[in-house]
Amino acid sequence: MCCDLRQLCLPLQVCDEVGSVRDADTLLPAIPRTSFPPTKSYIITGGLGGFGLELAQWLIERGARNLILTSRSGIRNGYQAKQVQSWKEAGITIVVSTKDVASIGGTRQLIDAASQLGPVGGIFNLAMVLKDAMIENLSTKLFQDVNKPKYDGTLNLDSVSREKCLELDHFVVFSSVSCGRGNAGQSNYGFANSTMERICEKRRQDNLPGMGTCYRKCISRFRIYHPARDTLNCKLYMMQYRIVPVPFSVVTA
Ligand SMILES: NC(=O)c1ccc[n+]([C@@H]2O[C@H](COP(=O)([O-])OP(=O)(O)OC[C@H]3O[C@@H](n4cnc5c(N)ncnc54)[C@H](OP(=O)(O)O)[C@@H]3O)[C@@H](O)[C@H]2O)c1
To answer: Where is the Ketoreductase domain (predicted)?
Structure first.
C-alpha cells in the first residue's frame, strides 16, 4: 500500500490536570496496517505453492480466519501438510480445493465454496505453470498451458467476482518482472503476467479492487526463501546466481 505518511499524521490530544482535553503540539505518524476481517473468506489460487503458503500465514497473522487454498493436485509434501495442520489446530478454517480457475465452471464452484465460509474479502491469484522455451520452440500448447492459470484464471475470477463478491476488498495477481522487462525463454510467462496486470487496470478503471505485484528473482527462482524448507540445491542455485534470499516478512513489511 502506498501512502504519504505526512498526510496521515494525527494530532495528539492531551488531558490537563483539570480534565480538559486540548491539542498538543506533537504530531504522531499514523502508520497504515492492512488487516483482514475474520468474518470474511479469502481465496489463494496456487495457495500450496512457495509464495502461497507464506501469503496464507501472513493473512492469518493479520486477522483472516477462513481461507481456501487451491492446487490442481492437493497436498503433496510434508511441509504443506504441516502448515495446513498447524493452522487447523489454531482454529483457522482452511479448505484445500482442487477447483480449477482455468474454467469458468471451476471458478464459480470455488467462489461459491468460499462464500459459504463468509463473504469473499480477498482473491489472490498465484497459480502458475512454467513451460519455458526459446521463441522458435514455443508452441501454441506451451503458450496455452502457461496462460491457463494466469490469463484464463484471472479473467474468470474477474468476471465471477464482479457478479458474486460484492464485499471484495482485495483482488491481487502475482506478476513478475519477466513481463515488463522480459526474460529469455519466458515469452509465454511474460505474456500471461502482462494480461493479468491489464485485467487489474480495467478493474481499477471500473472502481473495483485490483492490484498486480511484480516480484523478481531476488526472492529465488524456485520459490521464496524459507529456512525450514529450502533444499540444498535451491541454496546452491542462489549462490551460483548471487541471488540474495529475502524472507517473506521483509517482502511484506
Ligand atoms: N518465486 C518467485 O521468485 C516469483 C517471482 C516472480 C513472480 N512470482 C509469481 O508468484 C506466484 C507464486 O510463485 P511460487 O514461487 O509460489 O510458485 P510455485 O511454488 O510453483 O506455486 C505455484 C502453484 O500454482 C499451482 N497451480 C498451477 N496451476 C494451477 C491451477 N490451474 N489452479 C490452481 N493451482 C495451480 C501449482 O500447484 P499444482 O501443481 O498442485 O496445481 C503450484 O503449487 C506465481 O504466480 C509467480 O508467477 C514468483
So the answer is: 40-222
**Is the pLDDT confidence value at 224 over 70?**
no
Domain ranges, residue 149:
41-215
In whole angstroms, what is the distance from residue 146 CA to residue 203 CA? 23
What pTM, to 2 d.p., does this model score?
0.82
223 lines ligand 1 (CB under 6 A): yes
> Phi first, then psi: what are they for 103, rounded to 5°?
-115, 150
- Residue 34 falls inside a structural domain: no
Does residue 148 belong to any structural domain of this protein?
Answer: yes
1 in a structural domain:
no
CA angle at residue 144 from 140 to 148, to 5 degrees?
Answer: 175
- Give residue 200's identity as a one-letter amino acid code: C
The alpha carbon of 136 and the centre of ligand 1 are apart by a number of angstroms equal to 25
Q: What atom of ligand 1 comes closest to residue 51's alpha carbon?
A: 16
Domain count, the chain: 1
Instruction: Kindly state the average pLDDT of the residues 241-245.
Output: 46
Write down the residue that cell numbers 524448507 correspond to. Answer: 229
List the CATH number of the domain containing 155: 3.40.50.720
Of 53, 126, 177, 211, the one to substitute when testing ligand 1's pocket (max ligand atoms within 8 A of C-beta) is: 126
Assess if residue 177 is contained within a domain. yes
Four-point Cα dihedral 219, 221, 225, 227, nearest 10 = -150
Q: Which of 65-79, 97-111, 165-179, 228-242 has the lowest mean pLDDT?
A: 228-242
Nearest-atom index, ligand 1, CA of 48: 43
Is the beta carbon of 50 within 6 A of some atom in ligand 1? yes
| 72 CB near ligand 1 (under 6 Å) | yes
Whether 106 is in the pocket of ligand 1, judged by its Cβ within 6 Å, is no
